[in-house]
Design brief:
With 115 residues, the protein is mainly beta. The protein has one domain: Thrombin, subunit H, CATH 2.40.10.220. The chain is built from 1 helix and 6 strands. A hairpin with a 3-residue loop joins strand 2 and strand 3. The longest helix has 7 residues. This is PilZ domain-containing protein. It comes from Novosphingobium resinovorum. Pfam families: PilZ. GO terms for molecular function: cyclic-di-GMP binding.
Length: 115
Amino acid sequence: MEARNWSRHIVEKDVACLVEGAREQVFLYDLSMGGCMFEMACDRDMRERSATLDLQGQGIVQGQVVWQVGRCIGMRFEALISQAVVRRLGFTPPVEDFLGCPVREPSGHAPQPLL
């Protein structure tokens, strides 16, 4: 498996995607300077195709689909995008101390005290 060269940032936003003249909304899961992962609204073979994403006023980026699993697509950009654009669109979730988290039942509720 190929190692990633850039850190990914969670985005979780709808963006416009243009493939072979057809424009549709896709759900952008994550973004890095060199690529992204998004989900198409419908099943469609995208492997090895070119695509263009409109990054919500942060620029237009072109790339090549490098993998596909179902409707999820991995795309490598033709040219790197700015780290500032990645940070503006995405976020890095805060690191939480696992041991400091309250105990919860699988249902999400606090456990009842034992009698």
